[in-house]
Amino acid sequence: MRLYLPLAILAVAVAFLLLTPAETKIAGLGHNAIGSMAGLVAMLAYFLSGSRRSDISRMVGSVAIWGVLLAVIAGVYAYRYDASDFVDRISAELLPSEPTIGAGGEAIIRSRLGGQFAATARINGTRATLLFDTGASMVVLTASDARRAGINVAGLAYDVPVTTANGSALAAEVRLDEISVGQIAMRKVPALVAKAGALEESLLGMSFLSRLKSYSVERGKLVLTAK
User: Fold this and answer.
1) Angstrom distances, CA of residue 111 to CA of 43, 66, 165
2) Is the torsion defined by CA of 125, 131, 132, 133 positive or negative?
3) How confident is the model at residue 53 (pLDDT cuts 50, 70, 90)?
4) How far, in Å, CA of 110 to CA of 169, rounded?
5) DSSP-derived secondary structure for 103-116
6) Which of 42, 87, 158, 203 is least enclosed, having the fewest CB within 10 Å?
7) What is the DSSP letter of 224?
8) In what order do the strands lie in the sheet with 107-110?
9) Mean pLDDT value of segment 101-110
10) Dihedral angle at the C-alpha atoms of 118, 119, 120, 122, nearest 10 degrees?
11) Torsion of CA 176, 182, 186, 190, to 10 degrees
12) 3 state DSSP class of 175
């Protein structure tokens, strides 16, 4: 019971500091001063609530516990941005196709275990994974990805010969309303839709890549930069 009020004081202080820009002063005090004050108030509330006790050893133990709690809270707050970066890095390792955003808005994709790059993109607003392929003159979609993007695959004219990992096949020309990878978005992108079963994975080809400012591979990462 003694912990409820002090913990509530700390929780309110931490929430308030996280929601307030770091450079903003509160009643003329900076964030560090506010945090220290909240810690002292919480500690005082804790001791006052148990002031009838005279067990010195217990009081010393309580002081030590509160010191550790304050140190942890201060550390979490001070390194909150580093913690966010760490979480982003872990996510990128677990989900290599998911683009991360660079400082200049670049889309950064990590390689798969096999060394290939595949980017999670939005095609006409729907999610799809496209294999980075500079050898493909156009973006090429599998029939299933095209269907999810709202394309009537049954009504297309499959009269464009293409070469895939499964051999020669026929594809149909389409124009996609929008493709976005990370923060990079392009409209009216020419593309091909392969017949069902002709392609295992959609391809991010040159009809998208040629409209970028640059694309490069750096330290196992594919970096896409918009114009």
Assistant:
1) 50, 45, 20
2) negative
3) very low
4) 30
5) TTS-EEEE--TTS-
6) 87
7) E
8) 100-101, 107-110, 221-225, 214-218
9) 91
10) -130
11) -40
12) strand
Closest listed residue to residue 45, CA positions, set 4, 14, 80, 81: 4
- Residue type present at position 207: S
How, if at all, do strands 202-204 and 126-132 pair? parallel
Which pLDDT does position 111 carry in this prediction? Answer: 86
Q: Scan for tokens 């599998």, then name that residue.
A: 142
CA–CA gap between residue 59 and residue 114 (Å, rounded): 59
Q: Which residue has the higher pLDDT, 118 or 78?
A: 118
pLDDT digits (tens, 9 = 90+) for 120-135: 999 999 999 999 999 8
Q: What is the pLDDT of residue 4?
A: 61
Q: Which CATH topology does 93-225 take? A: Cathepsin D, subunit A; domain 1 (2.40.70)
CB 133 within 8 A of CB 205: yes
> What whole-number distance in Å separates Cα of residue 32 and Cα of residue 40?
12
Task: Give domain limits for the chain.
Answer: 4-78, 93-225
Cα–Cα distance between 194 and 199 in angstroms, integer? 6
* Residue 213 pLDDT level (bands cut at 50, 70, 90): very high
Q: Residue 224: its pLDDT value, please?
A: 96
Amino acid found at 24:
T
159's CB contacts (< 8 A; 6+ apart) are 170, 172
